[in-house]
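User: For documentation purposes, I need each entry recorded in a consistent format: the amino acid sequence on its own, followed directly by the corresponding structure tokens. There are two entries in this batch. Please keep commentary to a minimum and don't merge the entries.

Assistant: Recorded as requested. Entry 1:
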Amino acid sequence: MAGIRLSPEDSELSSQQSRGAVSELISDDDRSVAADSWSIKSDYGSTLDDDQRQTDAAEALSAGNFRAPSDYSSDKEEADAEEAVPSMLGLQCYWDAAYADELANFHEHGHAGDVWFGADVVEVIVTWTKRLCFSISQGRLPNHVDDIKSERVEEGDKYLSTWGVLDIGTGNGLLLQELAKQGFSDLTGTDYSEGAIQLARSLADRNGFPNISFLVDDVLETKLERQFQLIMDKGTLDAIGMHPDGPVKKMMYWDSVSRLVAPGGILVVTSCNSTKDELMQEVESFNQRRIGLSQDPETPKDQEAGRDPPFRFLSHVRSYPTFMFGGSEGSRVATVAFLRN
């Protein structure tokens, strides 16, 4: 278990039902989902009226004409009973308000903003990712990244500087700053919230990382034309899954990310809503869908390389604390790496 999953509701969520369920979507449990389910840690308080932010997001949910899972066409995956319940955390208006608040907090108090999943998890992610990239730079695909000796990794900083890194849904950009400290230098962060990008640029400049590039871009409709050797996702797929149209948007996510990762590159996903096995199953479903499309007789010749699975499982973090629940062992967070074939 990678986090405390929101309790599933009726999978048949029609437009009419979603309007009627707005009050439920902004319940006290939903107000605390960021702190409880996403393990948000912050060193300071918020200046934005949280009730107003909840109200704005609820109005967006109410006004939205979102499709029910039963409306999806037969060639698309239907919503699973375990899909995250629609939440305001899946709406851009919520994040625009949140980062407007954090940007104001930065200008007034110099605060950096929330550290999603906590500083300890971020430290694990960046050190583990560095070891993984170093091993691949040496022509090895490790089974146990945690077993790579740290002194050998320190010698590999020169290899990491050539890796093009993209952090999708970068937020305040602090993950990229930590990666820069590990030796990565070709760093780009994108977010669909302009406030997040403004905050990330301000923090990078203040903290001595002016070379990190930050762009306003929605990964689901990305305008980026280059590919990257390493793509980081820390909570972005989680948020996409909580959109009322989450199942469709998650398919858009995998289509887009598969084009952004360079052949032989790595996608590292950190989630608190999905386990390692669930992320692997999601990738396998995407692979099968892509293979099915590539076998269509009308597939252009220049796309025949797509007949191979786009992604395959590479490794996962094994060092997160675990706990027992319902007879199964798991952790609050899962970090999984996939190799782009």
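Entry 2:
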Amino acid sequence: MLRVIKNFLPIPNNDPNLFFRYVSYIDVFGIFDRDPFGNWLILKRFIILIAGIPTYWRIAVANQLKVEGTEYLEKLPNQNVYFISNHQTYFADVITFYHIFCSVKWGFGNRVLPIALFAPRGRLFYVAASETMKDGLIPKLFSLAGAILVERSWRAKGENVKRELDTSAGDNVSKGLKFGWVVSFPQGTTSPYAPIRKGTAHIIKDNNPIVVPVVIDGFRRAFNKSGLSYKKRNTELKVKFKEPIYFSPDATVEEITEVVKNIIEQNMPERIARWKNEAV
């Protein structure tokens, strides 16, 4: 009970503005709280509420959401937590994570209840391709809920490309980690069993975060690629949080990349075979 109450207490910040920094010690409702990118958290929480009400029905009523492992989230610190997951749709995956994180804040465990949206966790970010978040009104709205936008150097508009590496992406993820929790999809695509991008390993080496592996399933069967339209209702959506792990500072980029591939289960032959059978 005390742990749940603690989730609602104000978190002092290092805002460069002295007024906002001092107010953060008593700002229970987060009215004057801003993230490191200058966005107001009160607006972010409002967007999470507005986006969360209709999407709750889609993931937990029209489909069957099964969540495991939220006990690992209950004792996590408020900053420097890095969630890494496989990726199946542009938006449904992230939206589901937000619902779960808000419910964990309220102490609901593996249950996702819509009341948690009225006081959501605001210190959340997710890594997304900038081209995905700029295409249409709904993606732009979702972007305001905490997107850290990156320019993919290897893919654009569904085609393979080669362009300069977006060096600002790592810096922005580091800012997000210093402020709160960041969700990342290290494959950088919704294509199943795609290779792990080494940028994830560099972020882990540079920030030494608590890494929480997540494995999801069912979203590709339930929704279209964007995650905004149904393909098949009454589908079981699985989200499994694994025990947090810590990487040694001496671990190489290649070693971290290999571990990431294993812990998000993107190298399992039997899963690849099952996916190919489902695609036929």
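Summary note for entry 2:
The beta strands are 64-68, 81-85, 124-129, 147-150, 155-156, 159-160, 181-184, 210-217, 236-241.
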